[in-house]
Design brief:
By secondary structure, this protein is α/β, with parallel strands linked by helices. The chain has 10 helices and 23 strands. It has helices at about 70-80, 100-110, 150-155, 175-185, 200-205, 230-235, 255-260, 310-320, 325-330, 335-340, and strands at about 1-10, 15-25, 25-30, 40-45, 50, 55-60, 60, 65, 85-95, 125, 125-130, 160-165, 190, 210-215, 240-245, 265-270, 280-285, 290-295, 295-300, 305, 360, 365-370, 375-380. The strands form 4 sheets. Strands 6, 9, 10, 11, 12, 13, 14, 15 and 16 form a 9-stranded parallel beta sheet that branches. Strands 1, 2, 3, 4, 5, 21, 22 and 23 form an 8-stranded mixed beta sheet that branches. A 4-stranded antiparallel beta sheet has the order 17-18-19-20, with no helix packed on it. Helix 5 crosses helix 6. The longest helix has 14 residues, at about 100-110.
Length: about 375
């Protein structure tokens, strides 16, 4: 038994102070400090926050490594890097590249998923396949020559490793036959993103199985009073959605509104590129040159390519730029994403019986310690 003391414990509906968090490989409870069992190993949070481990549903790379490298060493490097940001589990994210490269990357993730439960890095929960079934008009930084029509057979073949598939609903058949096959035959979450769908098509996509929206506002049709677009469809349905919480991709003035409309359906993501964790400079993404300046990466032509955001920083960005309670900001990076991929019974909050995935942070949510299933994986 271990006990974390002298910290602010972030539960899913409140923050507890002057209490201790008890854990083994699972969460054992929250008790007053005088009720810590004899013999428990004591960990001092030094006045910081004690929170559930963070879950990133959408991350392409870190420390110069790309998920689409298709190399085991790249995935290990990414995992060992982001565990220092408090990420205890994640979905390494592919993009629209040659299908052979995508399949090789998925096979690497498939091979490493079990091993990742024991290594000194973030655990692989599966993969987010962003594309290649997207709209050329909303491709963003993705290469149009590799865009394909939706293919349910591909999703079925890799349904053991793909947790989320991002696609453009309008590129499916008129009756959304491929989306319907995906949701009928697999547990993969179909997400609409990189899409030029109008409002009606997006709503029809939801009726036929779309459950999620990839990086809300970015690379989709906007909300306008006579052209409602995908954004309005997200607001008018119960689909979950992602937010790149770097204060650039979506302006902070939207944060309160988004939480009021989506609540526990809102998930913070990084959409982090291989430049994450590195200094300003020139890097690559899916073989394309990107330039990292300030808080964003761009292609050479100026197209926004993604972020370099650490997820713990995203939580703090939203907290400091909104009226959303800190525990709900944390839920957006832990419990809510766990729920999207069906892991909420084991992950995402400090409830008794759940896996002891825990982070200890300083007063501004800088990560000091990351614990996965009761074992310390990072200690600053």
């Amino acid at each position: 038994m271990k006990a974390i003391i002298n910290g602010k414990i972030i539960l899913k509906d409140r923050i507890e102070e002057k209490k201790a968090l008890l854990f083994s490989d699972r969460i054992e409870g929250v008790v007053s400090e005088e009720n810590i069992p004899d013999g428990a190993e004591i960990i001092d949070a030094k006045g910081g926050y004690i929170a559930p481990g963070l879950i990133d549903l959408h991350i392409h790379g870190y420390l110069g490594k790309d998920v689409c490298d298709g190399e085991e060493e790249s995935i290990r490097t990414i995992s060992e890097g982001i565990v220092k940001n408090g990420v205890t589990g994640y979905l390494p994210t592919t993009m629209t590249v040659d299908m052979k490269v995508i399949k090789k990357s998925l096979e690497v993730l498939r091979n490493l998923k079990e091993e990742s439960k024991t290594w000194n890095g973030s655990q692989i929960f599966g993969c987010h396949a962003e594309g290649p079934f997207i709209s050329e008009a909303k491709k963003g930084a993705q290469d149009p020559k590799y865009i394909l029509k939706p293919d349910a057979q591909f999703v079925k073949e890799y349904a053991d490793i793909i947790k989320i598939i991002t696609l453009a609903p309008e590129t499916d058949t008129e009756d959304f036959s491929e989306i319907r096959k995906m949701v009928k035959d697999t547990d993969v979450v179909v997400s609409m993103g990189h899409t030029s769908s109008d409002y009606e098509t997006a709503m029809a996509g939801v009726e036929n199985g779309v459950k999620h929206a990839t990086h809300l506002f970015n690379a989709m049709t906007p909300m306008a009073h006579r052209a409602p677009g995908v954004v309005t469809a997200v607001f008018n349905t119960d689909v979950s959605c992602e937010l790149i919480a770097d204060t650039f991709h979506v302006m902070p003035c939207f944060y309160d509104m988004l939480f009021k409309l989506k609540g526990r359906k809102l998930c913070f993501i990084t959409d982090c590129l291989p430049a994450g964790g590195l200094p300003y400079g020139e890097y690559t993404l899916g073989g394309a040159k990107i330039v990292y300046r300030d808080i964003v990466c761009r292609l050479e032509d100026g197209t926004v390519a993604g972020s370099v955001l650490p997820l713990n920083k995203g939580v703090w960005n939203v907290y400091k730029n909104s009226t959303i309670p800190l525990w709900e900001c944390v839920n957006c990076a832990s419990l809510n994403p766990a729920t999207v991929i069906g892991l909420e019974d084991k992950k995402g909050s400090l409830e008794i019986g759940k896996d002891a995935d825990i982070i200890i942070t300083d007063s501004e949510f800088g990560v000091l310690k990351t614990i996965i299933k009761g074992e310390t994986k990072y200690d600053a």
